[in-house]
Amino acid sequence: MAQSQESESFADGTPLVELFGSPARTKLLSVFVDERDRDLNISELARQAGVARSTVYDHLDRLEELGIIVETRATGPGSRYQLSEESEIAQKLYELDGLVLRRLLELDGELDQQ
Length: 114
Known about the structure:
Blueprint: H1 15-20, H2 23-34, E1 40-41, H3 42-49, H4 53-65, E2 69-75, E3 78-83, H5 88-113
Antiparallel strand pairs: 1-3, 2-3
Helix pairs in contact: 2-3, 2-5, 3-4
C-alpha cells in the first residue's frame, strides 16, 4: 500500500530538515553567511534571498531561537539582523559554505580539463 503524502517521512523532524527544511530558509541562511559582516533589514534579506518580506518574517524567529542569527539594532520601525558570531551552528554553516564552494570549483576545473 502506498504511503500517503500526508504521512510523515523518516527525515521529517530531524535536525538538518529543521535547519534547512524549506528553500526559503536555506536561501536566508545563505544570505546571512555571505553577508556575515553586515547587519541586514527585512527588505534587504528579502531582496537578496529572492523571497517575500512575509517569508523572511516567517523564518526569523526560528533562526533566532536556534542562535544562528541575532538582532543587532532597531532602525526606525524595523530591526537589523546578522549571523551570530557566538553561534557554533553559524560557524559551521560558514565552514560548510566554504567547503562546498571549494568542491564546486574543483568540479568546474575537472569539467574544463575534459
